[in-house]
Amino acid sequence: MVKHIVLFKLKESLPQEEKLDIMNRFKAAIEALPSKISVIRKIFVGLNCNADEKWDICLESEFDNLKDVSFYAQHPDHLAAAGILKEAKEDRACVDYEVFS
C-alpha cells in the first residue's frame, strides 16, 4: 500500500472567509472522488484549526501502488478538484511512502 500525503498553504492575502470557503469546497470535492476514481482506497482532507501552523490543508490518501497514485493524479475529476486551489495556493508539499504490513 502507498500513502499519499499532501499539505497545502493558501495565500495569506486571502480574506479568512474566502479561505474557509475554498478549503471547504476543496474538501467536499476531494472526498467525493472515491465514487469516481476506483483506485482510491481511502481519502480524507483535514482543515487546520491551529493558526500558528504553516499548512492550511492536509490531504491523506491510500492506494495499492504508485501507478494508482499517478492514475489518480492525472484523472480529470481529480484535476477539477485540485483546480479549486489553483489561484489560492501559495505552497504545496507531498510525500508518498509504502506501508508494509
Report what the structure shows.
This protein has helices at residues 16-31, 66-74, 76-82; strands at residues 2-10, 42-47, 57-63, 89-98. With 101 residues, it is an alpha+beta fold. A four-stranded antiparallel sheet has the order 2-3-1-4. The radius of gyration is 14 Å and the shape is globular. The chain starts with a strand and ends with a strand. The protein has three helices and four strands.
Mind sketching the topology for me?
Layout: E1 2-10, H1 16-31, E2 42-47, E3 57-63, H2 66-74, H3 76-82, E4 89-98
Antiparallel strand pairs: 1-3, 1-4, 2-3
Number of strands: 4
- What form results from the Cα inertia axes? globular
Structural class: alpha+beta
Tell me the radius of gyration.
Answer: 14 Å
- Strand order across the biggest sheet? 2-3-1-4
